[in-house]
Amino acid sequence: MEGGHEREGIFFFYNISSVASCIAHCWRQDTGLDGLTQHGISYCVNFMAYLPSGKGLLVLHGPKWFQHRKLLTPGFHFDVLKPYVKLMADCTKVMLDKWEKLIAAGKSVELFEHVSLMTLDSIMKCAFSYRSDCQTERSVNSYIQAVYDLCYLIHQRLRCFPYHNDVIYWLSPHGFWFRKVSFESLSNLEKVIKERRESLKDEQELKKIQKNRHLDFLDILLCAKDETGIGLSDEDIRAEVDTFMFEGHDTTASGISWLFYCLAQNPEHQQRCREEIKEILRERETIQWDDLSRMTYTTMCINESMRLYPPVPGVSRQLSKPITFPDGRTLPEGSLVVVSLYLIHRNPSMWENPSVFDPSRFSPENLSHRHSHAFLPFAAGSRNCIGQQFAMNELKVAVALTLLRFELLPDPENPPLKIPQIVIRSKNGIHLYLKKVL
Ligand code: HEM
């Protein structure tokens, strides 16, 4: 974190090196993200504010954020997450079947795009119980296409500085495309929410739903009520569904893709994970809820991969009051500050040989000696990631089923070129060779 850069490449968010080092310092003084929050840091505008559906949990603040967080937390209870494991496994298998066909050509495979479609498929199933077939037929559903287009357009808007201005963006061809896609996605979403609200009113229908399928996020959002019996409006529900859709598929896609890359680079750890998974599953070809907590070594590898390649490389805040750091430097109210999770995870004063992939850093003995905020892939404090258990489950399911079927090998001709966007990606994708495990 010192100096705000690292050897492999500069990883700044905006040009705020002095602020980054203030935060680095503050963090080193045991203040951490919780400390920053106590010092009065509120949410700043981020990419989710560009979404057409309004403000969801990620960008809300104040009492409304608190109300939504409370209402949505039961949606991530393990009873709700349990049935998702089968859905995640089904989606992973579709992806692996596609890879079986692709490897016949003898070339390396660009994984990131396949993994993104898989996680989009999975979140569609978990959020709406919607079977989209988006992994095999891209044009099949206009909402899926809209989510895909909006992701592209938002990334592009963030990258192109003049587009940060609403008027310039509104008048540009991309702004026109954005409005068109936003309109389509909103009307699609409104229709789905209306139909589901109607069906949940009918008691017979409700019983049928409870019997035939799992509770999905949409059921939970529609049924959520606070102690005064007040639920979420249609507008709030649309914003939350979109937040889950965007926050819940690109992030996990990044986590899974970089994990595969790390395992390809480190065959001995890959083999150890494969052996662990085979030992847990025995003769079974699929994975179940109880298996996930037994994947001890694989979880250490997942954490080590998220240390080196945190899917969300940084978080930003706007100061709601002035802040004084332990070294006496100050920042005024209203400043935009960015905490680079990427740099925290590679801070040499906290991590020995920080660029080496070493899963033993996450063994229980080593964990107990480390600062609780040295590893923050899901952030920390009250605004931490609400979907972290969902994400960890998806990562475990994807890696387990993939390692049972394929050996992952690096493609030295196509090394990834990492770029920090909203999530950490590779400019040229992630290319690996896949070999069938016999
Ligand atoms: C590997 C996958 C994931 C990573 C690394 C990740 C990381 C994060 C991080 C760092 C934050 C804090 C953002 C900030 O402070 O600005 C966050 C917040 C959030 N995440 Fe995730 N996330 C992941 C997956 C998911 C999934 C699957 C969902 C939903 C299904 C989700 C939903 C959210 C929401 C709603 C918030 C805002 C929480 C709040 O402010 O109360 N995330 N995530």
TrEMBL record:
<dbReference type="GO" id="GO:0005789">
    <property type="term" value="C:endoplasmic reticulum membrane"/>
</dbReference>
<keyword id="KW-0408">Iron</keyword>
<feature type="binding site" description="axial binding residue">
    <location>
        <position position="385"/>
    </location>
    <ligand>
        <name>heme</name>
    </ligand>
</feature>
<protein>
    <submittedName>
        <fullName>Cytochrome P450 family 4 subfamily B member 1</fullName>
    </submittedName>
</protein>
<dbReference type="InterPro" id="IPR002401">
    <property type="entry name" value="Cyt_P450_E_grp-I"/>
</dbReference>
<keyword id="KW-0472">Membrane</keyword>
<dbReference type="InterPro" id="IPR001128">
    <property type="entry name" value="Cyt_P450"/>
</dbReference>
<keyword id="KW-0479">Metal-binding</keyword>
<comment type="similarity">
    <text>Belongs to the cytochrome P450 family.</text>
</comment>
<dbReference type="InterPro" id="IPR050196">
    <property type="entry name" value="Cytochrome_P450_Monoox"/>
</dbReference>
<keyword id="KW-0503">Monooxygenase</keyword>
<dbReference type="GO" id="GO:0004497">
    <property type="term" value="F:monooxygenase activity"/>
</dbReference>
<keyword id="KW-0560">Oxidoreductase</keyword>
<dbReference type="InterPro" id="IPR036396">
    <property type="entry name" value="Cyt_P450_sf"/>
</dbReference>
<keyword id="KW-0256">Endoplasmic reticulum</keyword>
<dbReference type="GO" id="GO:0005506">
    <property type="term" value="F:iron ion binding"/>
</dbReference>
<dbReference type="Pfam" id="PF00067">
    <property type="entry name" value="p450"/>
</dbReference>
<dbReference type="GO" id="GO:0020037">
    <property type="term" value="F:heme binding"/>
</dbReference>
<keyword id="KW-0349">Heme</keyword>
<dbReference type="GO" id="GO:0016705">
    <property type="term" value="F:oxidoreductase activity, acting on paired donors, with incorporation or reduction of molecular oxygen"/>
</dbReference>
